[in-house]
Amino acid sequence: SISIKDVAPRDLSSFGISGVEADVEAGVGWNIDLGFRLSESFALELESGYYQNSFGGFEGGEFTSLAFGSTPIAGGDGDFSQIPVFINARWEIPLGQADANAWRLGVFGGLGVVNVSAEIEDITAVGVPGVTATVDGSSWSFGAQAGVELSWRIADNARFGVSYRLMYVEGADFGRATY
What we know:
Strand content: over 45%
Number of strands: 7
Distance between the termini: 23 Å
Radius of gyration: 21 Å
Largest sheet: 7 strands, antiparallel
Shape: elongated
């Protein structure tokens, strides 16, 4: 899930949000890693790419107003995207024959920064007709990741594979919502 920064209402005509947690569905992405192989099984890499996830609804949160108090937040349709820049450490185990085209199982982890963007429309305030909001913004935040990969070495310095990763991004700020 993604936590959205709390915003307090400024006056009677403005709205704030509090405690908002957005559910993120599984997504797709691509990345490219450039690095240095320090041994047959260990490498350091610079990684960047693009990841897209659908917005899965709200797990909690509320609209706040000086005029009507607070009401649960609901609705919403859109997606999140991330552009990571990580320094990774990767450890690989050859599966089968240790030739140039061997299957390899890899474990990796990294630290860096991530540009997180959100485009979510039709956010509603439960029980308050006509109040809708849109979140459309991006910010750079600290990130970390860990994952596993199954790859095929197609050359001494190139491989093709699939991976599963968990990515942590700290406190993305999508700017002010529009109402």
